[in-house]
Amino acid sequence: MKVDPVRPSDVVMTYRVGDHKTAEFDIFADGQKLVTETVPSRKPNAFFDGLRILLVGMTNDRSMVLVNFQAITGKSAASVAGARRVRRANGVAK
Question: Torsion-angle region of residue 87: left (phi > 0), alpha (psi -120 to 50) or beta?
């Protein structure tokens, strides 16, 4: 995923939900765990956005980071419908 090497960036993940009971998985950026994501079951084919903050210093002087998903043992990951980077202005995502 492309990132801004000067300003802090965050990731907005869009998941398609409803095809699993409850999805639970880890999100990694360049091998560093960001968060364990839990996406509750909703009506079939609904979409859900989740804002994930990239760790301070992770994007400094970099133009790209590799984002990975790993299901928790015995659980499943949600279907990813999209991902986008948002830049923070004065520390607030926009």
Answer: beta
